[in-house]
Amino acid sequence: MSAEHLIAAIPGDGIGQEVLPAAVRVLDAVAGRHGFRLHWRELPWSCAWYQQHGTMMPADGIGQLAQTDAIFLGAVGAPGVPDHVSLWGLLIPIRRAFQQYVNLRPAYLLPGMTSPLRAGGNFDVAIVRENTEGEYSTVGGRFGVAGGELAVQEAIFTRHGCARVLRYGFELARTRDGRLISATKSNGIVHTMPFWDQITAEVAADYPDVSWRTMHVDALAARFVTAPGELDVVVGSNLFGDILSDLAGAVAGSLGVAPSANLDPTHTYPSMFEPVHGSAPDIAGRGIANPIGQIASGMMMLDHLGHPEAAAAVRAAIHAVTADPALRTPDLGGTARCGDVADAVVAALPLSGPASPRVD
């Protein structure tokens, strides 16, 4: 493992400008205690950049990012810039250029937090979302004139793309409770979903030790609400994984605590780490955003970079902080401020700790 890492820091828009610097303080602190160093290259790419330059990032943006070891993203999106412009101008090009085909979104009930669901209980689910193809494609278009217009959107599912993300899900299940559900909708989507189901079964044959099943996504969404504690690993297409992971974050008590990782599991390219929450322009600039999702995303970044002990230390500190009612931000019913929570996480960092076999 390297003792130094170059990280591209993209605060982005809204509360990203607040939670990312807060998380950087935590990561710098834990790096210092565990004998490595993070070098930050801050990049101002955002909707504000778009309004100035007409693009979400410069023409050589991917080239700049390719020189780094990882990408740490705050949030993207602002009033006045359509969401499809900000998404397709920054996040999706990064995910696809660097083959970040796994979007890993863990959701679990943190100490001191209560699920809004009566059946929430204790749950710990890892959602593996296909991240480079599927329903989020550019194939299609709008045709016709006013009054007779139509829009066509093509979903692209390749054998290679489906198999590799499913294989990642089965490998992950082996490190957890050994259970996997594949989200499908093959009773209504007659081409891509039966194809996905077929490949799921083919991949599953290589993992006889993993208990698996397919489940229609609507019934699976209901399961997230009625019995989330029964779930372990869920693998879904780009669209299904996106929706289910936001639902899981809400079941955990707040999207403000939900982390995610856009992974190239081969480590050929830099991976990107970001909280699940958006830019939240309604609370931006008020200092009340919850930094836990960003900090936990940084925790996942440390693990990916080869520092499981440091990641485990951050996880322990997060648990200590969320257990304290005085350190809850308004999204969790408290009055704590973003900076206060980050400072408390730094203060709670253990001086050292054993390597964790699983950090999510």
First-to-last CA distance: 19 Å
Low-confidence stretches: 353-360
Strand tally, please?
12
Question: If helices are DSSP runs of H or I spanning 4 or more residues, what is the number of helices?
Answer: 11
* Oligomeric state of the chains present here: single chain
In terms of structural class, how would the helical and strand content be classed? alpha/beta
Q: Work out the count of structural domains.
A: 2
| CATH topology name of the largest domain | Isopropylmalate Dehydrogenase
**CATH superfamily assignment of the largest domain?**
Isopropylmalate Dehydrogenase
- The SSE order reads EHEHHEHEEEEHEHEHEHEEHHH
Strands of the widest sheet, in order across it, are: 2-1-3-12-11-4-5-10-8-9
Cα radius of gyration in angstroms: 20 Å
Q: Specify the biggest β-sheet.
A: 10 strands, mixed
Level-1 CATH class name of the largest domain: Alpha Beta
Outline? globular
Helix content: 25-40%
Strand content: 15-25%
Mean pLDDT: 93
